[in-house]
Amino acid sequence: MSDKHKIRVTINGVVYEREVEARLLLGDFLREELMLSSVHFGCEHGVCGACTILLDGASIRSCLMFAVQADGATITTVESLADARKLHPLQQSFADNHGLQCGFCTPGMLMTASDLIENFPLASEEEIRVGLSGNLCRCTGYQNIVKAVQSAAKQMRENKSA
Amino acid sequence: MPAGRFIGARVPRVEDPKFVRGSANYVGGIVLPGMVHLAFVRSRYAHARIRNVDVSKAKSLPGVVGVWTGQDTRDQIEPLRCIVNKNIVRNYKPSDIHVVKFDKARYVGEILAVVAAESRYIAEDACELIDVDYEELEAVFDVEKAMTKESPLLHEEWGDNIMDSAAHEIGKVDDAFAAAAAVVKQRFHTPRHQAVPMETRGCLASFDDLKRLTLWSSTQIPHVVRTEVARMLHYPDHLITVNAQDVGGGFGVKCNVFPEEPITSWVAMQLGRPVRWIEDRAESFVASYQSKEEVVDAELAVDSEGNILGVKARIICDAGAYCTAPFPSTIEPYMVIENIPGPYVIKNYKFDMYAVVTNKVPSAPYRGVGGEIAALTIDHMIHLAAKKLGKDPAELFRKNIVKREQLPYTTIAGMVLDSASYSESLEKALDIINYDKLRNEHAELRKKGVYRGVGISSYAQGTGYGSKLMSGVFGLDISSYESAHIRMDPGGHVTIAVGTHSHGQGHETAYAQIVAERLGLPFEDVTVVTNDTSKTPFGWGTWGSRSAVTAGGAIVVGCDRMVKKLERVAAALMEVSAADVEFKEGAVVVKGAPSKRMAIKEIARAVIYSRAAAMPEGEDANLELTATFDPPQLSFSNSTHVSEIEVNRETGQLKILQYVVVQDCGQIINPTLVEGQIHGAVAQGVGAVLLEENAYDEACQPRAISFMDYLMPTAMDVPKVVVEHIETPSQIMPGGFKGMGEGGIISGPAVIINAVSDALGGVAIGTYPLTPERVYQLASQMSA
């Protein structure tokens, strides 16, 4: 017997009203119900970070939250970064710096990176590595991801101040 | 092939936009109308008879569409079977894998029941309602105990637990040891590891119009999966498509056919609805194949100068419960045997090898197959031998490594080391890290109670495994050529289709670089198709660092043939003889009259579209061909890794201060892609030696079932890697390419263990991961 609950969420600027089971993970709500295939599950235990999205401005693990807990929230996923013609500077920087290989960890990395760039000074490479330590990547060895974040941070901050 | 406009260039990847946009099609994101979801009941015991599987309660749960046990599938799905030629591999014993068990489970994780339901959540609910009546049997945990007469048997018909064995002596090993000034004797017990790609496995089967089976699968070997699923389901190949469009990493764990693929396909055929199964991470720790657990007892004899006189090795591989297919669990120990001599001049070698079954998840190839354990064995023993002789390890490595003037050099294991840069790479790596200066620094720091060390490791990696090797030496029922289908359209653009599989390697970019270079075309005029069996010629997928060398070779051969055809048809169109023209920079030019020329675009339009009537006798009106390349022998990449590590004797913590890789993989296609592979492989090596382990208890219950137990290297654990390239093109492979995708992991454990040993006064290290506790124990062995 499953009780369903009404939730209302804004995702990438669009408002959705749905009825969901209490136990439905937020990540599954996004991927399975709303078909936002950029949200990937890598572990469902909150360790790997592949499911990272932005909720009310903070990067969170969508596998550690139930959809019902996101009622009323504003969520952004990687789909919101680029428009149909151009990539976001952060996405472009990952591509320019070979900061991805298989691409599976990439959406989560990008969302974490956007939180880092927005909210942290990122004064050193070590600080970036600490900031990314909650996102696992098995392909790149992180080196080019760090480079991509450094380069994107510089560019995005220059754009902002321009 | 010399570096040109594209070969050797850092061309940015063309495949990236979909990945950074999040619009890639991994199988977990594919949704089909009417799709149902699978979940499995997996054995809780490592060794047990299955008395009964009661699915009655599960069947009646709302939302459940079907439930099946091994009794339902045993006559419907053929077992997974690795076919080995018994005339070549005499001691091999086969172990069929019935995909759903009905009699006996041999590891925690074996599938006992299959549930299809409207959602994965309901499917898992149903699994919890399934009652299995087990008769628990004693588990076989330790390989040495497994080899005794008293041990319980996994496969009763074998009479023992030995899947395969081999032994050989080349030269006179006992004489060599008798003459030695120093002998190093070392036992290594390497941990069990998993590849752990960030995307777990998964597949989605659709049986359209009840005739065509389409299987989306997160696999590295789509064509092989297709052929095997056809065999296992008695369904014709031509009605099956395997589409592995976007796969989130593989590293070998997706390089075998897994039980879930034929099961998912079969369920789709029963239901007439699409069926999807996505492995969750907890499941992967008992369902995805594991690797690299070996017990190696080795000895090294050296003379007073440090020259290697002989090597002995006994390798016991913990193969897990069954032989995997089509790439067997035995590949790993065989390659350890092959690779122990490494890139060193060794004249006497004696080995024996056993692949032994235990009640653990089956063992299958994982990146750096055989090379990693071999490099650890030989390089740590050389390091320890140096300490015994009171010499610097660099001196012994320099002395024994194969020199350029000795190439081609046939190693004592029969591997023909072709053109390479073994001693040059070693020198360069030592130079980059400033080895002599570090030695002095470390000596000074030791007086202040700061313990730092340097580790060195080098390897020769055989790449381009061809069919002769696979069937003739490994005795496998598979081949290993690769094909490239090259097709020009009337606009003069080229589409190539190749049977390898890109799951992060950037083939769409690298292959286009070769074609654009070879045909003198703009890079944008070339498109690459891979990963889908309906769109590519039969090929063997991507594993064993094979793509650049084997597919790259096929592409070079095909382009050369295309150039010859362009010359012939253009000559006919220009009404001159074929001997009077030559292909130059994307056009066919009359020799000596450069204004008389036809660019590729003009030739294509004419041949395919407007002037087919002008084709000479015997020339088909198309610019389309398939070229196949089967490497005649291996071509060896080489590399030296050097690393500086600081050890905290009190906390057992390690800090990797520097990590240098000098890599020679022949003619480089795209240096950025090569460096990316090295960075990633080094990270896996760091994880392997410092963090990762699929530990089991004595009942063969897995102790690592999440990332809380199986620790993965993060951005804080992996050092920045300094990479330097040397290019010694292969003289064997078209294009001069050699493989390198796996290389970076091969020296990982060896170099870090040597560095830690060096920091701790030359202590011998035989096991890892080097947890703080282990390092603390090792440090306490040091005299104060």
How would you characterize the overall build of this protein?
The complex is a heterodimer of chains A (162) and B (784). Chain A has 162 residues and is an alpha+beta fold. Chain A is built from 5 helices and 5 strands. Chain A is globular. The mean pLDDT of chain A is 96. Chain B has a 7-stranded mixed β-sheet with strand order 3-5-1-12-9-10-11, with helices on both faces. In chain B, strands 7-15-14-13-8 form a 5-stranded mixed β-sheet. Chain B has a 4-stranded mixed β-sheet with strand order 18-26-27-28. At the A-B interface, α2, α3, α4 and α5 of A face α1 and α19 of B.
Short description:
The complex is a heterodimer of chains A (162) and B (784). With 162 residues, chain A is an alpha+beta fold. Chain A has helices at 26-33, 89-96, 106-119, 125-132, 143-161; strands at residues 4-11, 14-21, 52-55, 58-61, 74-76.
Name the descriptors.
heterodimer, A: 162 residues, Ubiquitin-like (UB roll), 2 domains, five-stranded mixed β-sheet, 5 helices, B: 784 residues, alpha+beta, Aldehyde Oxidoreductase, domain 3, Aldehyde Oxidoreductase, domain 4, seven-stranded mixed β-sheet, 22 helices, 24% strand
Structural class of the secondary elements of chain A? alpha+beta
Main beta sheet strand tally, sense and closure of chain B = 7 strands, mixed
Largest interface: A-B, 59 and 58 residues
Q: How many angstroms does the end-to-end distance of chain A come to?
A: 57 Å
Number of domains of chain A: 2
